Amino acid sequence: MLAVPPQTLQAFGLNSGLAAIGTAKGQKVLTPTGLAHAWALGVILWGSLGWRGWSTCVCYFAGGVLVTKLGKAKKEALGIAEGRGGMRGPENVWGSAATCAACALASASLPARSALLKVGFVAALATKLSDTCASEIGKAYGTKTYLITTLRECKAGEEGGVSLEGTSAGVVGSIVLSLFGYACGLVSRAAVLPLLLAAFIATNIESLIGAVAQNNFKLLTNEVVNFIMTVIGAMIGMALSAFLRIA
User: Fold this and answer.
1) Three-class secondary structure of residue 146 per DSSP
2) Which domain holds residue 218?
3) Helix %, strand %, coil % for the chain, to 5?
4) Three-class SS string for 192-215?
5) Do 13 and 69 touch, CB atoms closer than 8 A?
6) Count of CB atoms within 10 A of residue 112's CB?
7) For the chain: N or C, fewer Cβ within 10 A?
8) For 17-26, 36-45, 129-138, which range has the lowest pLDDT when averaged over its residues?
9) If pLDDT is split at 50, 70 and 90, which confidence band does 1 have?
10) What are residue 239's phi and psi, to 5 degrees?
């Protein structure tokens, strides 16, 4: 009989317990299928990176939920609020976290590259939290929104639209996530600057994709674009860290 690693047992126990508590309390953050997929994600992260990887993803998730709720009434009145009252489904879970899950699994499988892959893990989440903060704060509190390609003024919530308030909030989001990854020991202090640069570049590339291509290709859903953005963020973070010999 094969022995199950203790860390895997912890992953199953913790995430199953949290899912059961959330269901019993009637949580409104995830759809039922979204909750099942978040459970699977949690098992993957705890099983591969332990509490550090799991808690870093929770930091992203909590931050994303918080900023989504800010200015909710205004966003709903304008018709630019997240659908389903902000509840996340499986497509949202994996659009946001498939890249970090892949980095986590690769880190556990390739010990020699673990430090670099952990940078990719944190970079992916820092990128996604930056994007969520920029989008949600920009829609709620942005005074003027401009199309990133032409700088013409556009409506809040328009694909490719950016605002000073949203961009600033995005930078803050990436700082919070990157510092959390450093504080819990996933990445070194020297990796923080590459993480911030990676998140900033990747979120602006996401805006370019939104402005140039998203409305022209049905396959480019928000979730697909989010996945592409997190891949770019992870790759830039790892490339900068490797170049600077940080990881």
Assistant:
1) strand
2) 6-243
3) 75, 5, 20
4) HHHHHHHHHHHHHHHHHHHHHCHH
5) no
6) 7
7) N
8) 17-26
9) very low
10) -65, -45
**The whole model's pTM is what?**
0.92
| 1 within a domain of the structure (yes/no) | no
The dihedral sign for the CA sequence 184, 103, 159, 146: positive
Quick: pLDDT tens for 194-213: 999 999 999 999 999 999 99
Which residues, 6+ apart, have CB-to-CB distance to 42 below 8 Å?
11, 14, 15, 18, 54, 57
Burial (Cβ within 10 Å: 0-12, 13-18, ≥19) of residue 216? exposed
The structure tokens listed for 179 are 């510092």
Tell how far CA 39 is from the center of its chain. 16
Residue 56 in domain: yes
The C-alpha atoms of residue 47 and residue 51 are separated, in whole angstroms, by 9
Tell me the average pLDDT across 27-48.
91
Q: Is residue 160 part of a domain?
A: yes
Structure tokens at 239: 């490339």
Q: How many domains does the chain have?
A: 1
Here the tokens at position 197 are 């640069």
The residue among 85 and 158 whose pLDDT is bigger is: 158
Sequence-distant (6+) residues with CB within 8 A of 112 are none
Structural domain contains residue 113 = yes
Q: Which residue has the tokens 């699994």?
A: 105
Helix (H) or strand (E) holding 241: helix 222-243
At position 153, the amino acid (one-letter code) is: E
Q: How far apart are CA 66 and CA 29, in angstroms?
A: 11
